[in-house]
Amino acid sequence: AVTGAVAALLFLLLWRWRRRAGGAGRVCVAVLGDLGRSPRMQYHALALARHGREVALLGYLRDRPHRDVLRSENIRLVPVAELRGLRVGPKLFQYVLKVLVQSVQLLYTLLRIDQPSYILLQNPPGLPSIAVAWVAGLLCGSKLIIDWHNYGYTIMSLSHGRNHPLVLIAKWYERLFGRLSDYNLCVTEAMKKDLWVNFKIKAVTLYDKPASYFKETPLDLQHNLYLKLAKDYEPFRLRAVNASADRSAFTERDGKSGNVVKTRGRPALLISSTSWTEDEDFSVLLRALEDYERFIKEGAKLPALVCVITGKGPLKDYYNGLIQKLHFKHIQICTPWLEAEDYPLLLGSADLGVCLHKSSSGLDLPMKVVDMFGCCLPVCAIHFECLHELVKHNENGLIFRDSKELAEQLKMLFLEFPALEGKLHSFRENLRASQQLRWDQSWDQIVLPLLGNKE
């Protein structure tokens, strides 16, 4: 099988050598991960397509990408097969074998597509994709742009420790091959500085910005979403014996006027999203909710809570086990996986967002907060090094350091809910007034000039 793959690669190389066209107006946007869970790379593809570029969007096809990506005539999905079942020999051998097989597989895929002018690559994961994309760029006459979301070696260090040989090799690899790129993008000013000081890589900061469909959700659409979710998730159903089919836990349609109104005494809707990985400790939120329940028992005038935690990931079953052991009277928790189109609608319907993302490097910002701010949704976010570049404490949200501080913030924000006054309301008004740049405007200002004229 390996001999056949090498022979196929050699054939492709010879064929490419005869067709060094330079790929007029074509861009390959690549991520060695799930495209459906790579919103920033989807945004890149949509921005390029909007400017008339032909885009090959390359990656794993586990979860469905956004419908705008699927509908675009200028974007072609290029699936990469996921490697599973490489369980021969020691773990180190398995890892090396996986990297080698992925290298051949990725190079073969990159050489199969029409020659692009640029390869825009997400890092992490960068091993082996940076080196492979650089080799493909040499063979195809393509320029390599790396979009640094974080460092792969710092993510590996969460599992193995900073001084593990694999982590040290990954750091050396990122530093060496990162310098071979033609252009570099990154997600914060802190990362831009770190790339230069430690890697001698010059980068341009392209902050994550919300796409245009992240906005406040009109009441009619909120109602339809709640009724849809109520079919599968009990917290969205109205707890009443004679509940109407046109009522949810949060909204109801007035029988006379036909208008949707919010139900009296409705619970507050708290939302958090996660990829259920080591860099987010959800026990912090669970402990804060236990304190919130205690506040109500002690007589605080707080609403019941519906806490929705969305996402998929390796630690989801572990945390679901912890959630099932909790017995709340005033709090309901559910962990749905939402369709791509429903997620912005739910953010635009919620009362408060909570973010537990702690950057492995301390240099990247949580995109979930960017999306929440696009929906004018105030946020409580756990502190880390450069979070101040996004969350302005006491202006568009609050920053906490532990579960006790989060519990006190929830108590303060939801006291006398849903009165249109207090911090929660002022944070939302501040977000409405900020009129932040959207992704398309930011991308046009920062990335488009790097690409030059359409060739």
From TrEMBL:
<keyword id="KW-0735">Signal-anchor</keyword>
<keyword id="KW-0812">Transmembrane</keyword>
<comment type="function">
    <text>Mannosyltransferase that operates in the biosynthetic pathway of dolichol-linked oligosaccharides, the glycan precursors employed in protein asparagine (N)-glycosylation. The assembly of dolichol-linked oligosaccharides begins on the cytosolic side of the endoplasmic reticulum membrane and finishes in its lumen. The sequential addition of sugars to dolichol pyrophosphate produces dolichol-linked oligosaccharides containing fourteen sugars, including two GlcNAcs, nine mannoses and three glucoses.</text>
</comment>
<dbReference type="InterPro" id="IPR001296">
    <property type="entry name" value="Glyco_trans_1"/>
</dbReference>
<keyword id="KW-0328">Glycosyltransferase</keyword>
<dbReference type="GO" id="GO:0005789">
    <property type="term" value="C:endoplasmic reticulum membrane"/>
</dbReference>
<comment type="pathway">
    <text>Protein modification; protein glycosylation.</text>
</comment>
<feature type="domain" description="Glycosyl transferase family 1">
    <location>
        <begin position="266"/>
        <end position="413"/>
    </location>
</feature>
<keyword id="KW-0256">Endoplasmic reticulum</keyword>
<keyword id="KW-0732">Signal</keyword>
<keyword id="KW-0597">Phosphoprotein</keyword>
<keyword id="KW-0472">Membrane</keyword>
<keyword id="KW-1133">Transmembrane helix</keyword>
<keyword id="KW-0808">Transferase</keyword>
<protein>
    <recommendedName>
        <fullName>Chitobiosyldiphosphodolichol beta-mannosyltransferase</fullName>
        <ecNumber>2.4.1.142</ecNumber>
    </recommendedName>
</protein>
<dbReference type="Pfam" id="PF00534">
    <property type="entry name" value="Glycos_transf_1"/>
</dbReference>
<dbReference type="InterPro" id="IPR026051">
    <property type="entry name" value="ALG1-like"/>
</dbReference>
<feature type="signal peptide">
    <location>
        <begin position="1"/>
        <end position="24"/>
    </location>
</feature>
<comment type="similarity">
    <text>Belongs to the glycosyltransferase group 1 family. Glycosyltransferase 33 subfamily.</text>
</comment>
<dbReference type="GO" id="GO:0004578">
    <property type="term" value="F:chitobiosyldiphosphodolichol beta-mannosyltransferase activity"/>
</dbReference>
